[in-house]
Write a structure and sequence with these properties.
8 helices; 356 residues
């Protein structure tokens, strides 16, 4: 979808002051006083879930949906007309936890090799300071420019920061009884598709994740059709990807109930889920908060889109925190997983000029 002045203004305003989900084909945004129940017919709610599963649903005073048919505004507000935004300042990375990350991966591998875990995703934060306060609207536009096929999201956090990112991973799309997912696992630099497809470690990591998702849905009586193995290409990286589709029974169509079945997936947590989450709490010194959570929108009782909250950063004035993780399975090494997290960090941080 081309960035008209109206779309640019909506993205900038929502990224600064409200809630934003901007796919390549549809912009859903909201701002203004929020309520925890719908205020009128057609009202769009915005949903966010932390990695730990703490779910928040809000209904902003003003919501807007823009697609090829035009813009539809709901609520008390009018269209915004201020699309001005500031250039992004340079940043200096102040902490990247590289040494401790190698130790965490080694500890995780011991649990994998001993049979305690089949897979675990170990993440690390990258802290940075900017030379001037960061404009959240500029971050959203810059991410959309470098990752036009990703979904740009922006949400407030409980600490008062803004969480902004460009997610490549569709967690769950629901249209009535029909659901669609596209889990990602297995990563390589862009242009290395052949080596990714030939990597036994990456194919194994992807296969156990797909098996885990389909089993979790099957346990609730939701049959799933598994599509062919493919790729999800981004500007800096490429992932192995598989599309899953399914049909929901009538009693299981509440969007928040459905997402609780699949979140967090093995792509951001591990297998078995409970043991992996316990190990993550032990190995990672910092709380993930919204990183690797779920973000999206709901409209009515049976329509929703959820995205995995990765490739993002928290913004609070001049302080930034990025996150990146890697899946640890048999065949992983501390150095290879460290390199993968560096690649994922740079895929987002490259929107900023980097100070020496």
């Amino acid at each position: 979808m081309p960035l008209s002045d109206e779309i640019t203004a909506v993205i900038v305003h929502a990224a600064r002051h409200g809630w934003l989900i901007a796919t390549p084909h549809r912009i859903v945004a909201g701002w203004g006083e929020a309520h925890d129940v719908p205020q009128y017919e057609g009202h769009i709610g915005f949903v966010s879930s932390s990695f730990d599963g703490n779910l928040t649903v809000v209904y902003p005073l003003t919501t807007v949906s823009i697609d090829a048919s035009g813009a539809q505004y709901f609520g008390a507000g009018d269209a915004v007309d201020d699309s001005a935004h500031a250039p992004l300042p340079s940043i200096t990375v102040t902490s990247n936890s590289a040494d401790s990350y190698r130790d965490h991966v080694s500890a995780a591998l011991q649990r994998v090799n001993s049979g305690q875990l089949e897979k675990i995703v170990v993440a690390r934060p990258f802290d940075a300071e900017s030379s001037a306060p960061v404009d959240e609207g500029s971050v959203a536009l810059a991410l959309r420019a470098i990752e036009p096929s990703a979904t740009i999201y922006a949400f407030p956090t409980a600490s008062g920061a803004r969480f902004i990112g460009a997610s490549p991973e569709l967690l769950l799309e629901q249209r009535g009884a029909h659901i669609r997912m596209q889990p990602l696992a297995g990563t390589a630099p862009r242009g290395h598709e052949d080596s990714l497809l030939g990597s036994a470690k990456d194919r194994h990591e992807h296969a156990v994740m797909i098996e885990n998702v389909t089993e979790r849905l099957a346990e609730r009586g939701i049959p799933v059709t598994v599509g062919p193995l493919g790729f999800r290409e981004l500007s800096s990286v490429v992932h192995l990807a598989t599309v899953l589709t399914g049909e929901l029974p009538h009693e299981l169509r509440d969007p928040c109930d459905i997402v609780s079945i699949v979140h967090p997936t093995a792509a951001v947590a591990g297998i078995p889920l409970a043991a992996a989450r316990a190990a993550i709490l032990e190995l990672e010194a910092e709380s993930r908060d919204m990183y690797a959570g779920a973000v999206g929108w709901i409209q009515g009782d049976e329509n929703a889109q959820w995205w995995v909250a990765i490739r993002g950063l928290t913004v609070m004035g001049t302080h930034l925190r990025f996150w990146a993780g890697a899946g640890i399975v048999t065949g992983s090494t501390p150095d290879s997983e460290l390199a993968e997290t560096e690649l994922k960090f740079r895929s987002v941080a490259k929107i900023f000029p980097l100070s020496a």
